[in-house]
Amino acid sequence: MSKQSKALLIDITKCIGCQQCSVACKAGHKQPGDPEPTLSATAFTVIEPRGEKFVRRLCMHCEDPSCASVCPVGAIVKTAQGAVRYDGSKCIGCRYCMIACPFSVPKYEWSKLAPYVTKCDMCAERVLAGKQTLCAEACPTGATTFGDREDLLMEAHKRIVENPGTYVPRIYGEKEVGGTSVFYISDVPFEQLGFIEPPMNQPMPTLSAAALGEVPTVVTIGGSLLAGLYWFTQRRREVALAQVAEQDEKERN
User: Fold this and answer.
1) d(Cα 97, Cα 100) in Å, to the nearest integer?
2) Mean pLDDT: which of 2-6, 180-184, 242-246 is highest?
3) Is CB count within 10 Å lower at the N or C end of the chain?
4) Cα gap 24→135, rounded to integer Å
């Protein structure tokens, strides 16, 4: 498979709301339960009915993700393969990523003793192994397509041009918040389907860059504080995991 940045193209005109993408995603990530109505710590992709249409929600995998820009410990990064990935071993539980995301994607495992932030990772390990994402593989109608980002962008433009009057002349995700790695095309205006309208089509981190540049002292002092907080958080997580393991051992005996 090509080493170019990957992406997903979601064609709302083809989605029948069958939930196969949600089922495959849950199974692949060993998440419990049936498909859910909204994104959660146990549902990385969901189908939202919007009138007679169905809209699939998941992480948009922004080209310049605000979640990564606000993470003080580098627990979230944009990878060369296109996915925005989360590393729980670095996370200190500040949850700034949840606040920063314009699409309200990252979720927190509030019910767990050793909680992590969760979100779609664009099946990163599968993609690295040369496979497509679980959701694209499971889709029976071709509503979700996986491939090279530039190729999918050209395909989206092609469908719009070759089907005048069918599609709204816009690719959602091409320019929003500086561009994403998830594109949508639709025959219904996006604002009617619940899509957010960013105030401007530039990466969200650039809006705060100037302000951040004025606080070097805070960053310097904060480094020491974050180091201590990281140690404390990791220690608390280790203790919680040990307690769970001990409880499991007691129940087995």
Assistant:
1) 5
2) 180-184
3) C
4) 6
176 and 33 Cβ atoms separated by less than 8 Å? no
CATH class given for the domain over 6-207: alpha beta
3-state secondary structure of 27: helix
* Dist CA 79 CA 122 (whole Å): 11
Burial of 215 (0-12, 13-18, 19+ CB in 10 A): exposed
**What's the gap between Cα 201 and its chain centre?**
19
pTM of the model: 0.82
How far is residue 30's CA from residue 197's CA, in Å, rounded to a whole number? Answer: 33
First to last CA, the chain: 48
Strand-pairing partners, residue 145, are: 9
Q: For the chain, which residues make up each domain, given as ranges?
A: 6-207, 215-252
The neighbour count for residue 53, using CB atoms within 10 Å, is 16
Q: Which residues, 6+ apart, have CB-to-CB distance to 49 below 8 Å?
A: 17
Give CA–CA dist 192/127, Å, rounded.
Answer: 33
Whether residue 3 contacts residue 79, with contact meaning beta carbons closer than 8 Å, is answered with no
Q: For 70-96, how does the pLDDT look when each residue is reduced to its tens digit (9 = 90+)?
A: 999 999 999 999 999 999 999 999 999
